[in-house]
Amino acid sequence: MDFNKAALEMHESHHGKVGIVSKVEVKTRDDLSTAYTPGVAEPCRRIKADPEDVYKYTFKGNMVAVVSNGTAVLGLGDIGPEAGLPVMEGKAVLFKEFGGVDAFPICIDAHDAASVIAACKAIAPTFGGINLEDIKSPECFEIEETLERELDIPVFHDDQHGTAIVVTAALINALRVVGKKMEDVHIVLNGPGAAGTAIIKMLMTAGARDIIAVDQFGTLYKGCNSAEAHKNWLGEVTNPRQIKGGLKEALAGADVFIGVSKPGILTTELCQTMNKDAIVFAMANPTPEIMPDEAKAGGVRVMATGRSDFPNQVNNVLCFPGLFKGALSVRARDINDTMKLAAAYAIADLITDEDRSEENIIPGAFDPRVADAVASAVAKAARESGVARL
C-alpha cells in the first residue's frame, strides 16, 4: 500500500483528522439558553467563586493540549508549525482512540524556549495537561523543566519520556528472557539527544548502573567538554569505567545496545563483540541502526525496532494515552518518575511468563488492555507519591 498517497487522500478528503463535536444538543430556545446565555453565567459564577470547579463544569479535566513549534517533526526536522500540524492532529486522534482522552493540537510560531514557555502558560487554564511534541533539543529540556515547575497541571514531553517508558518496559522483559538483571548489565546508548537522555534517566530510575552514552564524537565521560550541557551532565553520571573512544570501544562486552540515532550505525561485526545473549533496540525510523537479520547474524538474541513490520515494536502509543488518562483521573499536579516507572512496569507485566519470548517482549499497539493498565498504575503511583488531588 502506498501510505504517502493514502495519507494525502485522507487528509484532503476530511480536511484534517480532528474536529469539535458538541456533547449537548442545541435545538430549542431552552437548549440555547442553557448552553449559552443566560444560563451559562451560572457555572461561570461558580468557577469564579471556586476555581477548582472548572474541573466540574468544563472539559478541562479530560482535555490535553498537544503543543509543538514544529522544530523537530518526526524525521523531517524543523519544518515549522503549519507543516507539523498533521502530526499533532494525529496525536490528538491517538489520545482519543487509545485512551479516551480528548486532545487538541496547538502549533505555535515560537522558536525560542521563552516564547514556547509563555505560550503554554497562557493557554494552561483551558487544559488538564500539556503534551509537548516535536520540539528540538536542547530547548525542549528547558521548556519542560520550567513548565513542570511553574504550572500545576501535568506537562509531559512525549518524545523524551514516552519513548523512555516504552523502551524501559521492553528492556524489562528482554532481560527476563535472557535471565539478566537491570543492575548488572552493561548498556550502550547511541544518540543522547532528547529521547536518548530521557531513556538513560529512566533506566537509571529502574536500577541500571552501567550505561555509556555515545554521540557523533564518541563516548561521553567526565570532562568531555561537550558543547551541549546535558551531554556534560551525562558524562558525569554515566560511564563508570570512563571508557573513551567510539561505539566500537563502548560496545565491547556490552549486554544491551539502544539506538536512537541514524541508520546503519551498528554492524553485524560490532554485534559479535557484545556479550552472550545480547539485546539490541535499534529505533531509528524508518530505517533502524541495524536490520534484525543482520543483528541476529551477529549473535543478538533479542531484537526490537520502532517499526510495525518487525516483532517487538517500541511504540509510544503504548504509553501516552494511558499515562494521561491515569494522571487526569486523579487530577495530578505532575507526572513524576514514580508514575513513569509504574507505567513501564504496567506495560511490561501485560506479557505473561508463558507468552514472553525473544519475539514477544512488549504488547502490540492495538492491545486493548494497555491504556487501562497504564492508567490504573499511574493513578496509584500519583496517589502514593503525593501529586494526586483526588
TrEMBL record:
Malic enzyme N-terminal domain: residues covered: 15-148
Domain of life: Bacteria
Domain Malic enzyme NAD-binding, chain residue ranges per copy: 160-383
Keyword terms: Metal-binding, Oxidoreductase
One Pfam family recorded for the sequence: Malic_M
Cofactor(s) needed: Mn(2+); Mg(2+)
Matching SMART domains: malic, Malic_M
Xref: CDD domains: NAD_bind_2_malic_enz
Keyword Metal-binding: yes
PANTHER family referenced in this protein's UniProt entry, alphabetically: NADP-DEPENDENT MALIC ENZYME
Entry's family note: Belongs to the malic enzymes family.
UniProt name for this protein: NAD-dependent malic enzyme
Organism the protein comes from: Faecalibacterium butyricigenerans
